[in-house]
Amino acid sequence: MYKLLIADDEAFERKTMRFILKKSFNNLDIVEDAKTGAEAIMLSEEYKPHIIIMDIKMPEKNGLEAQKSILKFLPNVKTIILTAYDNFSFAQSAIKLGVVDYILKPVRPDELKESLNKTIHLLKNEDTSINAFTDLSYDRDSIHEAIKFINKNFNRSITLELVSEHVHLTPHYFSRYFKNNTGVNFIEYLSKLRIKEAKRLLVSTSKSISRISLDIGYVDSAYFSKVFMKYEGVSPHKYRLSQKKPPLNLEIP
Fold first, then answer.
1. What is the pTM of this model?
2. Residue 93 three-state SS
3. CATH of 2-126, one of 3.10.20.600, 3.40.50.2300, 3.40.50.720, 2.60.40.10
4. What is the structure's pLDDT at 94?
């Protein structure tokens, strides 16, 4: 999965490229868009993209100025420049700054896809041992952050999409990687966490089943009981009764 940043001050162009890329590539994680050259630098520091699609004409800093700054902390980034000008001197400047390709605006879908395929091929052919280690380290950190987020917010209306957005991964990629690293899928992990807390509340408090259901993130108490039965083999009510300590049987001498 390659992280990609789109930097363009025209909202329509950004939406068009995002639509084309999402439809054509399943190995791209498209991060937050940049609307200016300064934003492109800032978001590149935050997300560390593998690929940047950079408009040449943007406010604050132009595309080449932003590329020059980004190369200082992302020397291996693959940048595709968008330009409305087709001239040789521009191409020379772009090549000197490590730009892998440039596309004339307005962007044509076939040219964009061809350029991305070429760029992804370049990434795959680079030193895979170094790049794989970097990606794995990033993904491991993302999973740890996701688990921390779930553990803290399991009692809210939490979804796969919400968690994947929190760690800046696509839902599909996050779902697959989460299961590969934890051995369970997102729903199963969340359910087990909630049931564990429900068991504690059933034993240590006198709260009603409905109240406990709400406290652990289930709005529907009937659904909560169904999930509880699935994992524990008994209803919440029967579990509570089974955990009550019997009265002490003291013999009077």
1. 0.51
2. helix
3. 3.40.50.2300
4. 61
